[in-house]
Amino acid sequence: MSHSLNEIEAMSKRAGRGAGLSWGLAEEAAKGTRWLSSFGFPGTEMLAELLMLNDRIPSIDVSPVSLRAEVWHAPARRMSPLIAGASLSDCAVRLLERGSITMENVSLPLLAVPFMGGAALRLGVAVAAEWDGARVATDGKQLCVQGDPEALEAKHADRLVFFAPAEMTGRREPVMRADVSADSWEQLGGFSHRTFAPATEESRLRGAGAGLSDND
């Protein structure tokens, strides 16, 4: 199925909220999914997989234990790329001062990449991320990619390292629409439905055509 980037962002935001993400993180996840999709990556598929992987798991279990540690890790021994990316953006100045930030056991590392854009714009320099067989860099507007699709779309990274400043090599051209698998769209739709208020007897009676009066 082909969807506009606006449709992808809207669905991703609702799904993020339905999966229990905060409003802020759901919005950032949606923007990130749109951003990845605009560069030809399967953003919706990866977001759906992440939401299913971490469904019903407390966010603290997949969050960095300490942002001051030499290597970031999460209690569950797998870190959410959304929380990791948001934390990286918050630590943008520290990234530039240290030159790099390393994270261990990050799920679907590509989902952390859009957050690099905000860090790059804040710092005024390009930011890069590397994991086994893959390297991506962004200045906040353009995206540069090196590595084969299997490595770039890895489900897990033992070590994810962010660098700043970075070189921009291997620019990828953006697209206006994205192909989305029916399964991932359905999965995101399932999460988004959790945001709907359950019907009550009163709401059903107030619905169109649901009145009890008989005017015949």
TrEMBL record:
Top-level division of the source organism's lineage: Bacteria
Organism per entry: Aliiroseovarius salicola
Annotated region described as Disordered, given as residue ranges: 193-216
Pfam families: DUF3726
Designated name of the protein: DUF3726 domain-containing protein
InterPro entries from the UniProt entry: DUF3726
